[in-house]
Amino acid sequence: MSAKKLCLSWAIVLLLMLVSFVRRKKIRIMPSVLLTASVTFFALLSPVGKTLLTVRSFRITQDALFIGLQKSAVLVGMVFLSQTIVRYTITLPGAAGRFVSDVLFWFNQLTAQRISFKKGHFIAQIDEALCAVWEQTNVH
């Protein structure tokens, strides 16, 4: 894995992040940072390539680090891409296209409101959120 490919991947992620920010006016960075750190850490558990640093018996290798950062770039990029695409109205032909459009519409409606979950009432709160969205869309 080359450093150029890794930099290009993260440049695409930053571009997708910017598009998501412009489209949604708000993005959350911390989940992406945690996802990147987790994926990279677990990739480092399989040491491959030139050793960069050794902490006790734990080796941090260049290839494992690049692989972890590349995998996390793909995942984080997909998250920002999905956040951007879901906001657009997509029209696809046929019954499958209507189904996909309906799924994206309802997903957009459900994610537009925030649900605060309380212990012991998980299913009831999801049911209330679904009913509220259903009533809002059928009123108009």
How much of the sequence lies in strands comes to 5-15%
**Low-pLDDT segments:** none
Helix and strand succession?
A: HHEEHHH
Spatial gap, N to C terminus: 53 Å
Largest sheet: 2 strands, antiparallel
Separate helix tally: 5
Q: Look at the structure and give the mean pLDDT.
A: 84
Shape: elongated
Helix content: over 70%
**Whole-angstrom Rg:** 20 Å
How many beta-strand segments? 2
Order of strands side by side in the largest beta sheet?
1-2
From the helix content, strand content and strand pairing, which structural class follows? Answer: mainly alpha
Could you characterize the architecture of this molecule?
With 140 residues, this protein is mainly α. It has a two-stranded antiparallel ribbon. α1 packs parallel to α3. The model has no long low-confidence stretch (mean pLDDT 84).
Q: What is this structure, in a nutshell?
A:
This protein is mainly alpha-helical and 140 residues long. The protein contains five helices and two strands, in the order ααββααα. The protein has a two-stranded antiparallel ribbon.
Q: Can you give keywords for this protein?
A:
single chain, mainly alpha, two-stranded antiparallel sheet, 2 strands
Write the layout of secondary structure elements.
Layout: H1 3-24, H2 30-44, E1 51-55, E2 58-61, H3 62-86, H4 94-111, H5 122-139
Antiparallel strand pairs: 1-2
Helix pairs in contact: 1-3, 2-3
